[in-house]
Amino acid sequence: MPRSLCHFVPFGVEYLALPFSGQKFFRPALVDALRDYNLSELRGDLIAGVTVGLVALPLAMAFAISSGMTPESGLYTAVIAGFLISALGGSRTQIGGPTGAFVVIVYGIVQKYDVTGLFMCTLMAGILLLVLGATGLGTAVRYIPRPVIVGFTNGIAVLIASTQIKDFFGLKIVKVPGEFLARMEAIGKSFHTFSKLETVLGVSALVIIIVCMRYIKRVPGYIVALLFGTIAVIALKLPVETIGTRFGGIPSGLPKIILPEFHFKLMLPLISPAITVAMLGAIESMMSAVVADRMTREKHNPNQELMAQGIANILSPLVGGLPATGAIARTATNIRSGAKTPISGIVHALTLLVILVAAAPLAKFIPLSVLAAILLVVSYNMGEWHEIPELLKLGKSDIWIWLLTFSLTVFADLTVAVEFGMILAALVFIRNVTATTTVSEITAEDLEEGRAHVLQGKDIPPYVSMFRIHGPFLFGATEKVNEIAQRLPELSPVVILRLRNMTAIDATGLHELELLSEQVRSSGRAFIMCGSRSQPARLLHQAGFEDRVGRENICANVADALERARVVYPEVASVQPKQAWKRRKTDSTGTIARGV
Question: Which structural domain range is residue 584 located in?
Answer without folding.
Answer: 457-595
